[in-house]
Structures are given as C-alpha cells and as structure tokens.
Input
Amino acid sequence: MRFEELFDLNPWWEDPENIKIDRHIVLFEEKKYKYHPEKILNQIKIDQAGIYTLRGPRQIGKTSALKLLIRALLASDVDPKRIVYLPCDNMKDRFELTDIIMRYVRVFTQDRKLFLFIDEATLIPDWQLAIKYLVDTGFLDKAVVVITGSSAYDLKISSERLPGRRGVGRDIVYLPLSFKEFLTGFDIHVEGFSLRDLMTSSVGELKNLYVKWAHVKRYFDIYWLSGGIPFAINDLLENGTVTEKSIRTITDFILGDIERYTKSRLRIMELMKKLPDIVGQRFSWNSLVNHIEDFAESPMTLQKYFELLSYLFIFATVYFLDPSTKKVRPKKQKKVYPIDTIVLKVLEKLSGKKVKEGHIAEMIVLRHLLDELRIHEGLNLYFGPYYWYSNKGNEIDFIQEENSILVPIEVKYQNKISKSDYSSMLRVFGRGILITKDQVFKDRGVVGIPLWLFVISLG
Output
C-alpha cells in the first residue's frame, strides 16, 4: 500500500461530510434491516488510550461497526485527520503496516490523540509484532486502536505478545446476533432475566410472560430461517429466502480462511460434507475418523481441524462436564454445532443433507448460552456451556454454570412433552429447564418454556 492511498481510504480528511458516501455507511443505511452494534461500540473507551481487538466470524459486520464509530467521532467534532482507517487486504507485510502508521503519525497527528482502525489484521502474518513495535517506540501513546480479525488464533497470539501494552483496551467478541439483539433492529426491546429467575418463576408468571411477548413469535420464525448475521437477515427480508448468492459468499470465505491455515481445501470440504450427520451428536475423534470415508487423516489432525473451525468462529465444540467435580473431561465424547444458521446452510449445500429440526433448536440455544467474555480464544468451550451423558446413554443437552450453580438445560423441540423427557434432569440435578416448541409448565424443579420465549428472556 502506498501512503497516498490513505487519502482515498479516508475521504473524511478532505471533508467530514464524505463519511455519508462511504460504501459501508451507504450500504448500511439503504438496508431494510439495520442493527446498530451499540453493545460492541460501547465497550471502546474513546476518551482513553488503549488497544482493542474486535473479532468474530466473516460478514458479521465488523467493518460496518468501525465505520459507524468513525461517523460518530466525526459528528462529535473530532479532527478528521486524527481518524485513520487501514484495511489490510492490500498490505504486503507487517513492515509495511508499521511504516504506513509511522508516516501517518508524523505527518498528521504528531503528539496529538489519534484513532486508529486496522481492519482484518489477521491477513498479515505476525501483525502483532508491528503493533508491539509501535507501542514500544511511543507512536501509539495517545492512540485508541481497534484491530479487527476473523480468527481468534492470530488475535490470541497478539494478546500474549502485548503484555502491559494495551492501556484500557480489551478483547471484544462480535457474535451473530442473539434473538434479543435481532429484535432491536425492529425497535423491539425486551428486558432480560437470569436462568435463576426462570427457574424460580411460578407457572403463572411464565404464562403471563408468554402472553406479554406472544407478538414476537412471528419474528422468531424469521430468526430461525436467517440466523443472526445482518446481511443474511436482509437477504431473507428482501428476497423471501437466504439466497444461493449469500450461501456461496459465506462458503468461499469459510473455505478460503481454512485454506490459509491448512492448505487442505479438499480435506476440509470432505469433512464439512459429513458434518450434518454429527451436529448435536456425541462423538470421539477416533469414531469420527472412522465415520468419514476416505478421510486419510489421523484423529489428532481431525482435532486440529475442529480447533481451527473454532478459532474462526464457525463451529463450537461442547465438552462433557462431571457434575460431581464440576470439571471438564476433554477426553470424553464431545458435540459440535455451527455458530449460526448461515453456516448450517453452507453445510447443507455442500453435503446435500438436512440437519434435523431438533438439532437446529439446540444450536440456537447454545448461541444464547455463550458468554462473550469467555470465548476470546474461539469456540472451544472449555469454560462452558457443557453437556452430560451417563454410561447408560442418558443425556442432558447443556449444562450452564450460573453463580456457582449448575443449571441443566434439555431441548425437546416437539409438539408433545412427557415426564420421561426431563426425568434425567430431575434424577441427577433435581431441577432444570426444558426447552419446548410451544408449551409452558412447571413440574417440581423443572420449568418448561418455549424456545422463542427462552431466547428473549435470557440475558
């Protein structure tokens, strides 16, 4: 990248009003569905120097979030030349990144506060060393730096190599929208509850909650079909479906990112074609290798592939928890889920197979149980949520720890519910939450609640 290109990339230097014709801002404003990522942007303290990383899956809207923040800074009369946006698509290496930033600081900001937005830094090998050098030489002493990337692998390394150099900065994860976040795009705002609140609610309170929010059920139908990535939501609203073009776009991004790390596009495609068979199913690495025909890889290599999928925020791996010790047992069988509906559609397109409705419901529940403060290193869920199964094959879909209490959650997305559907929770834990299709009930320590109501209540 030539230094002169910065003027094209930052047109607000010439006129602050030019932010209105920025490509990402224009696309954001013309869409039918708009999600304003205040939850993400509010975590960035613009009045104090600090280095932030913002990570999440491809097409989630990280670049749009940066441009919205730039627009807000310009609206608050920040000197336009103290705001610089640097995409890394055409950056040759970390040395070029270092040189561009040093020249910018010397020409435009010198000893003044600056706002530096580095987009998709993970495209540059060892980019974190450039940031370390700039910090150590004082170029970022008065800078608010936001660095985005689609991989937790590189960003994890950066955190380890910037000890004591981040100021008030922090790691931020931008996941596909929860249903509550999704609803804010329709100007519907729901007060959240804790799992404990749901567990202690009476059946009358639960039914009142059902009646109060029954009008959002139709929005949940949209969410089920689109997932929580804004571009897919708009695709569905504008075209009546998530189109082949959108699915192909995500497919290319996923396979391209994986290939950058593994150089094994064909192997990964073979694996992804088999994934619809195992979504929500217990498996071991050995059993999965045996399940995939002509997959000439070892269980250890297969495990590394799944770790990469988790680093890229594509797939989540759920581990067994021993309730008696509250310890994870990574060598026991595990389960995997896509992070979002659009990823699910990619798998179904590649394989020609459909994932069962019940496992889709489990995927949605898992997304709403994720703690974004504990997944900075990807979706290998060593810190929960977990799951449990017995030697006899009984299973509880998820176990969430809240205030040192284990809350079992079973998903039965079906029309009829019987006591046998939650007998394991009562026997092992004496309590639990049963996610249903549309039934509300309370039986001893078990609360039954519809999926759509659970996901707007939680959080």
